[in-house]
Amino acid sequence: MIGNALQLTLREMRALFTAPKALAAMAILGIMLGLVGPFSTFDYFEPIPRVAYWICMVFLGYAAGAFGGGLAVNLINQVWKSPNVWLVILCAGIGSGMLVSIVVYVVNAVVIGDWDIDGFSGILTAVYCVLISICVAALHVLFLREDRPGASKQIEILARLQIQNRGQLLYMSMQDHYVNVVTSRGQELLLMRMSDAMKEAEGVDGLKIHRSHWIARDGIKRVDRQNGNYIVEMLDGTKLPVSRGQVQAAKDAGILT
Q: At what angle do helices 47-79 and 85-111 cross, to 10 degrees?
């Protein structure tokens, strides 16, 4: 269980740290903080070292927060199929905040030679980091989700999911009488027919590749051929077979060559 959650978290972090906009935003934030010099860092550093300090702090803190919060959420989603949204927010904030506070302590110890500086002192550092992380997690889940009101594209199937599982639709698979809907933020079992789920996924560019599997084109990582059969690997690492009856449709869609 922990291994699966860890792998998914690392894949999510890789996606975050290969996104140019996210990297640019972190760099800009680090430069701005370096110029302002909050938490008495204006008194500790000259301008260039101060900017370097804050860029380092932003990147390391972001990585620690994304890992801690992401791992907590992924573990919860594996234990409970439909966890309470406030439990997710609380655990994400604690997991993220604790690791961020460790980064703050370690960076200050290495760079300044002291665990504490004015504004970054004692147990209050961990408390502040956790509280801020909980607030950020709440804002992200409640207001910054992709299906927020006013978004240009509404996908019906996503509205059925718990808030924390709503993200980019990757694929859907039949499991007995349920459809397992998998997004970039999690997965959830819905009691419905695949045909109805496909209708509610209208607006997403995708196709049925097997009687039990529907995939979104943007959710495909790569396509392999094994022993004469086509296998589609999705962004979360799941490998789905293309049935012989759907090969031509997949070729017509440009997924198979």
A: 150
